[in-house]
Every structure is written in C-alpha cells, then in structure tokens.
Design a protein that fits this description.
Layout (H helix, E strand, L loop, with lengths): L1 H6 L1 E3 L2 E5 L9 H18 L3 E4 L13 H10 L5 E8 L5 H14 L4 E6 L6 H8 L8 H13 L20 E5 L2 H10 L3 E3 L8 H11 L11 E9 L3 H20 L18 H10 L3 E4 L1 H15 L3 E5 L5 H13 L3 E3 L1
Parallel strand pairs: 2-3, 2-10, 3-4, 4-5, 5-6, 6-7, 7-8, 8-9, 8-10
Antiparallel strand pairs: 1-11
Helix pairs in contact: 2-12, 3-4, 4-6, 7-8, 9-10
Amino acid sequence: MKETLAENKRTIPLSILDLVPILSGKTAMDSFKNSLDLARKAEQFGYKRYWMAEHHNMAGIASSATSILIGYIAGGTSSIRVGSGGIMLPNHAPLVIAEQFGTLESLYPGRIDLGIGRAPGTDQLTARALRRDVTESIDDFPRNLDELRTYLSAENSISRVRAVPGEGLDIPIWLLGSSTFSAQLAAMLGLPFAFASHFAPRLLHTSLKIYRDTFQPSEFLQKPYAMAGINVIAADTDEDAELLASSLYSSFLNVLRGTPNPLKPPVSDMDVVWSPSEKYAVLQMLDYTFIGGPEKVKKMLQAFTRETEIDELIIASHIYEHEKRVRSYEILSTIAPVINS
C-alpha cells in the first residue's frame, strides 16, 4: 500500500517570475546582472522556467523590453526554459511578437515560452504612447491572439505576410490572466493557463474552475494545465523572512499610492510607513503570499497546492538584497510541495 501511495504522488514544478526590480540606489544594469545570476542559480536549483513580465513607465521595474531580456537570460543559461509572464499583446503588432519569439526560439531551441496577457501593463497615457490606439474592444484580444498564432503556424507559409523566423516553430503559448476572461479563452483554445494570483487573488478559484470545467483538448494540450502566481519570502528563520517582506509591502504600497519607486531596503516597522487602510488594501492584494522559515513556508505551500490542485507554481520574491533573494529561492527549491497525482 505504501508503494502504491508513493507512486500516486508528484512534486509540483516550481518556476520564477522576475519583474527585474530596480533597487533603490542601484541602476537597471545592476538589475540585469542580478537577474542573470538568479537565473543561473535557478537552473542549478532545479527550477523549470524563468519568466519576465512586461511593464512600462515604472521606475522600479526594468523589464519593459521583455523580448530583449529573454534573449539575455537564455543566452546566459543552458537548460532552464525562459519566457514572458507575459507579453502584453495590446501593446504590439502580432507580427512583431511572432518575429521576436521566432528569433528567440531559433537561437535557443526548445527553451522559449510565450506567455500572453491582454492588459497594457501600464497607465493609459503610456499605453497610448506605446500603441497609439486605446479604443480596442473586448474582441480585439482574441482576434490579435488568433493573428499571432496564425503567423507562428506552418500553414501560414502560403500567406503573403509571414513571420520569418517564427513560422512553423514549436513555441508554447500560454494565456495569462487575473480574471475569468483568459481562463475561458485558454480553455476554449486548449492552451495552458497562468493566473496572476500573486497580485489579484480574488478570482483564482473561480478562474481555475472555469478553465478546468470547460477545457477543450487541442493539438497543443490534451488536458488542462494551470499555473498559479504566488509571492514567497523565505529565509532561515521566520523573523528574518518577516523583515525581508517589508520590501514587498513597500513595493505594493507604491502601486497603491501611484508612486512606482525603486524597491526599498527592508524596514523594521511597516506601521510607520503605511496607514491602517493602506495596510488592509496591500494585504488583500497579497493574500497568496507565503512568508517564513523553511518549515512554515513548506506547510503553507502544501496547503495551497492541496486546495487549488495546481499543476505548477510560479514564484515572485520582492527581496531587496540579491543574496537573500537567491537564498529564498534556494530554500524554496528544497521544500517543493508534493500532492496526489
């Protein structure tokens, strides 16, 4: 009986979501070097993917040119999958993304993921500067996604407009979302789905249910595959982790206040930084945030994966000191949750 039970258990794959934070007192170049070092360490620790997210007009995030950074990270590593979490498709012509990721897949075959989101990843004024037209309807995203997938298909070889390189390459496309819209679309198209529960926790369970209940098998995926974004701040002790987490709180407080400043060093008392109402709002956004030493984080992750039956976890860690950020991911790699398969 013990052998049978063991055979029915599996370790949840772990991946990394890197916003490439710019640290207070540091430069974007420092952030790029830190990200490459973290990716190399993640490869050693056994992480499955290393994704970066597209954001614009934010003084604390250096991942605006996401495709370029994917090439930088992939070129400095050897086996870990590298991709976007995600590319914000409304900001780009689908042909441009097909060409960019076709180039990346040609350079680093079998290692590139294309995660797609439908938010602009910025404010409306910057969105206008990026794409010139902000009058899109709810139908534009599925139409643009279909155009992108067409450019990447082998069947598009007879078209007058082709993605070279890109056409016919096996580039996994993920749909990302913080609402039920992308869950429904991913299910309809038979694509893997990633939910942004690291900052938008409210609809996680509803979206997962919709995705799983309505999933239609495709040539790309025979059964639903869902990934959840979470925040983890792990350290050797619970007390150390709580201190490090203040940088995460400050980062989300900046979002709440509309002041996207560089990531700040930890502080011993957040109550002198935020008001009670701000604290409540930030903690609501960070509902799926796991902070503590190895044993505490392990128990929380085990409970989360059991509750959600998630297929994969992608983890963001807003930690100011690079060495402690690396240490957090190292600790996490040793306590990956195990669930019944």
